[in-house]
Structure formats: structure tokens, C-alpha cells
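We give the chain.
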Amino acid sequence: MPSRTMERVSFLDRPSARLSCAGVERLIAELREVAGTCFEQIPEYHMLAADPDALRAGSLTLARDRAGRLIGFCAARRLHVDGVGDVLHLGLTCVRPDARGTRLTHRLLSALILQHALRSPVHGLWVSNVASVVSSLGNVALHFEDVYPSPFVAGPPTEVHKTIARTLAACHRDRVHIRRDAFFDPVRWVFEGGNADTIFAKRADDGRYHHRDPKVTRWFLARADLDRGDAVLQVGRVSLSGLIRYGLRSHGATVPVLGRWLRPRRLLGGFGAESA
């Protein structure tokens, strides 16, 4: 049975600037313990590897049970793109097996995105995602704005999309855990073999990682050869107005509910900033 004892989701931005050295070490140990319940081999990636850049430019949402035990986290990091600014790259999300089945993964990502959107209320922010998991690709396409590539958007990428893609492919491969020797196809937005021989590679016939909508699954499987280790790059946007529209749709809400939806503690069931 999934654990129902989750008490608090908190947000921690730029951990190395907020925590002492000992605090950072404790945090990394907790993250690695949770990751160890999700992977056969813990990826030496992002904050799990004590990457100084990730600790300096990254952010986390953390879920703890009533005893204070970390039961899940969602991590992201800022990537600088000339002419665009910082792009929020979606990283790892891990949830302990006994806490699954409670939509905690969704809540962790929602909390992370909401916090960043509140920090960019006027113009919003650009978001990137690199994955071989079709369910992840489909959910980004569904829940973010102006996503490319997406089965729901027929138009071509904008120049900003292209600038972000070129920069990630040329300058940020290590930061997004993509092989340096992988060819980036600028038409399909696929890193060919980008996840080959890593724990992030997924087989095309492994239904555990398919999207709940078979049409979405087929669309992405036609774009990337997962058995080769391909990874798809997506770029989209998130804005406070877009989150409001999504919140109203998903809750069947009317306008008077808007104020409640915008209050993170009401939306996320106990949410606050992580103290240093």
C-alpha cells in the first residue's frame, strides 16, 4: 500500500548558498538514499554527484513524511543561454516505492514549477527536458506551453526554441547527462544514442515507460529509436498565467477559486520554503 504519511513539500533554491557544508553533505546523502530505491545503480549526475554547478544553480522540491524522512524529490537546474537568459532544465524526480500511487511525482514537479513561475511573473521562463521516457515527454508536451517537439503542436520551432536547442547541444551536454559523441539531429530534435549504455536508456517495448495515451506513445516512438539509446530534447515555456489556466481547468474551478489556487500551501497540501 502506498504511504499516506507525507506531511510537507518544501522548496530549496541554490542549496550551496543556503546550507552549510555539513548541510549540503546531509542533503546529498538523503537524495542518494531515495535515488537508491529507484535505480539499480545511483546515477552520478546532478546533485547526486555533488556537482558544484548543480548545487549552485539548481533547485529542489523535497517531500518528507511526518518523521522527517525524505520520501521524494524533484531537481532542476538553470542553464544559461546567450540572448535568452536562464533556462530551467528539468532533472531527476525520485519517489520511494512506499510513497508512490499518491501523485507525489506530479506534486513535486508542480511545486517546483510554481516557485520558479512566481519568480518570473511577467515574462515567464523557458524550460527544457531531455528524456528517453515517453511518459515524461508526453507529460511535458501536455502541461507546458509552446513545447517543441510535441504531438499537440503542428508548427515549427521559433528562433528562441532553436537557440536554446543549439546551446544545449553545444555547451550543456554534461549538465543534461547526454553523451558527448551523440549526434544531435536538428530536424527531429533527437540525440542519437544520447543515453546509450546508461541507466536512463529505455527499451521501446517497455510499457512501464509509455504514456497513458497510446497515440502520444506512438508519436514519440516514431521520432526516436529508443533501442539505440536515443533521447528527445524538448523546449517549452511556463508562465504564471498558463499555470492559472491549467489550475482552473484541472480543478473544474470558477474564478473565485483563483486566489486559493495561487496560494501554494492550499494547492500542494502543506508547502513552504526549506530553511537553511
DSSP finds ten helices and ten strands in the chain. The longest helix spans residues 104-119.
